[in-house]
Write a structure and sequence with these properties.
The protein has 219 residues and is α/β, with parallel strands linked by helices. It contains seven helices and nine strands, in the order H-H-E-H-E-H-E-E-H-E-H-E-H-E-E-E. Helix 5 crosses helix 6. It is globular and about 60 Å long.
Length: 219
């Protein structure tokens, strides 16, 4: 889908950022997310293959929260290493925004994060921040949960579920964006999140399935 054809659905400042970054087209899941209400603050569950463009959906939601809703965006990842990776990526891609990362000491409220537009963190750290009544929480407009299928993980799932539940209770106007390539029950999860489900099978590289045996693979 050509970007220009969606101009009326994209906030002016967000459209300007996309144009400046050289985007002329959007991938299927990005187009579907916009049509599903991405810029209308709708909760969305994006279930599409790896490398299909889910991260840009999250970035668009963050830009909308910052430029249009005048608030903050929180990007939750499952691991500290991923938090560092996303922080590095976002800092490079959006030099005009203030990007912060918090994934360490769970006994700190990290009040300094109040000055950042986008905060990258883990579910465990964000749970701690909420329990410490971090002063900037009320300014959060969108929370993106990467790898949201980890709700089913015995180790990290309970904390992530608690984080989402408390957030929805405390921030009535919060927009929640869930991202995953592997959810077995997307309809059920979307219903629990009160989110619109965005499904798509497009992937940039064809995926072939086969069986490897005795030095040979049969597709």
């Amino acid at each position: 889908m050509k970007l220009e054809e969606l101009r009326d659905l994209i906030p002016e400042k967000v459209f300007a950022v996309l144009s400046k970054k050289g985007f002329s087209t959007l991938r299927p899941c990005q187009y579907k997310a916009i049509k599903a209400g991405l810029f209308e603050d709708k909760n969305l569950l994006i279930c599409t293959p790896t490398a299909s463009g889910k991260t840009l959906v999250a970035e668009l939601a963050a830009l909308n929260a910052i430029y249009h809703d005048k608030g903050k965006a929180v990007y939750i990842v499952p691991l500290r290493a991923l938090a560092a990776e996303k922080y590095k990526q976002f800092t490079k891609d959006y030099p005009d925004l203030k990007i912060g990362v918090s994934s360490g000491d769970i006994d700190s409220s990290d009040a300094y994060l109040a000055k950042y537009d986008v905060i990258v963190t883990t579910s465990e750290k964000f749970d701690s921040l909420m329990r410490h009544n971090t002063p900037w929480l009320e300014k959060v407009k969108v929370v993106i949960v990467d790898e949201i299928h980890l709700l089913n993980d015995a180790g990290r799932g309970p904390t992530l579920e608690i984080v989402i539940t408390i957030l929805r209770e405390r921030l009535k106007k919060l927009q929640l964006i869930g991202l995953s390539a592997t959810i077995g029950n997307p309809e059920e999860l979307a219903d629990w999140l009160d989110a619109k489900l965005v499904l798509d099978s497009w992937r940039p590289v064809r995926l072939d399935k086969g069986v490897f045996f005795d030095g040979k693979i049969e597709f």
